[in-house]
Amino acid sequence: MVIDFHTHFFPDRIAINTIRYLRKRMMQVTGTGMTADEAFPIYTDATYKSTFALMDRSNIDKFVLLPIATNERQSTNVNNYAESIGSDRVIPFGSVYPYQKDWEYVLEDLYYRGFKGIKLHPEGQQFYIDGSEGMRVLKKADRLGLIVVIHAGADPGYTEPYHSSPQRIANVIKEVDGSRIIAAHMGGLNQWDDVERYLVGTSINMDTSYISKVIDFSQYKRIIENHGADKIVFGSDCPWQEPQEALKGIGSLGLDEESLALITHKNAERLLGIASS
After folding, report:
1. Could you give the C-alpha distances from 37 to 55, 70, 143, 217, 275, in angstroms and in order?
2. Model pLDDT for residues 126-161, shown as the tens digit of each residue
3. Per residue in 193-216, is it b (16+ CB within 10 Å) or e — as a string?
């Protein structure tokens, strides 16, 4: 059993344009001399059908969709689409724009509709995770028992100061139970020294999305061992990384079989409340 806890895809009518927009931002910010295909390759066309096919080829049993509403008008459509593609294999999370007036209603509505959790992207949504807007959403989600996946650390489409650094996430878990929070990208993309300084050994969960492309593998293994494999969930960040590449990275670390089982499916099953296989 393998569960990919970090995937992205979009309705067919907007998928291509959404990816083009995101890659354009990334190229403008990073200023690399490479082409977009070289610097930020994608492995699906960001549609449901293409993602499903890649998950089949990669032998992924279940996968979590993490949508993001980047303005108040989007949350209804984003959540309705997410709900429409839910199945035994596809587990959709919802999204709330932290500045929207009815943010509390949106969270309650997601809970009553049976969503397991939400995704927050403090860069894409432009709010500080430990600021007033972030904390009120996190506290409400905690009261409802919703999982919260947070984009953590740097983002190639945005410049500093980053809105969800490891230190800011450490501020969050002083006030909110970290056991249902997942800090994506091993706690902070490209900020892993601060992950070790502020987050390792705390109650928070982390996912493995994208990082095998960019992290030093000795630090990767050290974070897992010191934080605990029982608080790491597998994620690829598809379409930005192939699940098999992410799995290969984890498999190369020399972890024991129980740790690999925890990371690839057992921790996800516990968080999602689904039967262990």
Report:
1. 21, 25, 42, 25, 39
2. 999 999 999 999 999 999 999 999 999 999 999 999
3. ebbbebbbebebbbbbbbbbeebe
